[in-house]
Input
Amino acid sequence: MTKAFVSGCTGLTLTEDEVALFRDENPWGLILFARNIEAPDQVLALTRAFRQAVGRPDAPVLVDQEGGRVQRLKPPNWPKYPTPQLYGDLFAHAPDKALRAAWLGARLIAADLCEVGITIDCLPCLDVRFPDTVDAIGDRSFSSEPEVVAKLGQAMIEGAIAGGVLPVIKHIPGHGRAVVDSHYVLPRVKADLSSLKSVDFRPFKELSYVSLGMTAHIVYEGIDPDSAGTQSAKVVQDVIRSEIGFDGCLMSDDISMKALGGSFDERSRKIIEAGCDIVLHCNGDMDEMRAVASAVPELAGDAKRRCERALTGLKVPESGFQKDEAWEEFRALTDWRGV
Output
């Protein structure tokens, strides 16, 4: 049976211990980072090795390939993509061009990922930008206007799906008000529920039909002052599931981030108890991976249904897509140099 976690790994190939863990614990998926990525043939071999270890040819392989600062597949073997804010800046001058550019950007990224066996891309970032938004989000946000975030997010979602890759909306229910970096400390947002509904939740509510989402490690004091959203039933059940209406597969943000305290089995249990479907652990630390694997359940019930339904959305890339022509159009639309 498949277990309710996604794991990282340490290097360019799987170690014997990693193969054994994946074979015995059967995580739902694998997530790759820059440390795991060198060249196309190597990445393809790595994704195949993971699927062989878990015995599931359709086992998800994830990556964060947003463009800008968050791009795990890098030059010279892969193109450089612009930061998401570029699309928002373009939208202010030429909305149609911006939407087309966002679709093309996601479609081109999907083409890169499909070639190496990656099936899920953790984009788009639907966090609304504020004047004091922490740099960890910053230009990863499309815009300070919720409706612009939703429109550009939808364009990237559609581009990714057309290219045979599943998108993940993040960081639900909104990371834009954080003023400290959750990689290091736990942010606290003081805004009341009404303010959050009127701005932060709106892009997620508009795009709640997407089959995969990722939480935020943030305390929303107007909802639950005692727990990070990732570990809060009030945030997950009352806000994400009910208010926003998201019924897709909900995964945590990386639990090895320092925003969360406690042991890794404790972190994992709290996340599952709050109502998340999948625990995401990224750093490849074997002891932590074992602790996560020991704490999470096998996928069952609604969690299993949501995870299985998400994977049915994977489509063969649309025919007729000409990568070279798409790049030419993409450059012209964005007038972006250095690609």
In short: The chain has one domain: 80-283+299-334. Residues 95-114 form the longest helix (20 residues).
